[in-house]
Amino acid sequence: MSGVWMYSAGGAIGGELARVAPPTPSGLSFAMLTHLEALNIYKYKYEREPLTLSNPIRFPETLKKPTLKGLCLPWNYMSTIQRLPKLEVLKLLDSSFTGHLWETGDEQFHQLKYLKLTRLNIRVWEASSINFPSLRKLAVRSCKDLREIPLVLGNISTLEYINIDYSNSRVLESVNRIQNAQHDIGNYDIHVSITHMDQSEVFFQGGPLHLHGGGIFFRVFRNVVLLATFRSISGDKSCRYCANSLW
User: Fold this and answer.
1) What is the average pLDDT across 46-52?
2) Do residues 168 and 143 touch, judged by C-beta distance below 8 A?
3) Distance from C-alpha of 126 to C-alpha of 180, rounded to nearest angstrom
4) Are residues 129 and 103 in contact, defined by beta-carbon separation less than 8 angstroms?
5) pTM of the prediction?
6) Euclidean distance between CA atoms 61 and 87, whole angstroms
7) DSSP characters for 131-142?
8) CB–CB of 93/67 below 8 Å?
9) Which among 11, 108, 164, 189 is least buried, having the fewest CB atoms inside 10 angstroms?
């Protein structure tokens, strides 16, 4: 678990933010943050070898919008994320997961509305329309080894928008087939946009500021950098509590 880790937490988590611990050989746990809704985890100076822990990151069931970057997780860990009951947005960036095959299996992302895959080394993505019953938007960018976006995803009745770039001609062709197949059956609801260049995901903005009704704080623990943003539950009192507890 070496390297430098950064976390950005959103939601009305108040004083519970102080319970976040730096990563250990047994993993990283956010399970105690029972009001957590959005979380960004960014590990840079990362190793290309995937983590071998059976449960390297533990999330609370309240989590709706995780963004993961540079973690090199194995794809079989995705089943843990699939089981999050309130998951709505999932962004997998820059080797957040590593491995050439992602099989979604029979499990569902029940509430997932937006899925983004960026700069992953995936080659084969095996999925079915039943895996994503609520998906509205799909973005696949800079996945240069991916052979195709699963054609069956075009059968998702809720899917409205697909965003890709010009980095992979096979992805372009598969999206074109998805769109043509839908047009053949009279469905013109799926819109496709193609961008020339993917913009890097902005994880953290601003500095160690105190905000009205919330705050941004830094914590350095050995080689771990913690950056947490939150909304206070009871005004400045909660902000001061978190700030004092972090140091």
Assistant:
1) 54
2) yes
3) 20
4) no
5) 0.75
6) 9
7) G-TT--EEEEES
8) yes
9) 189
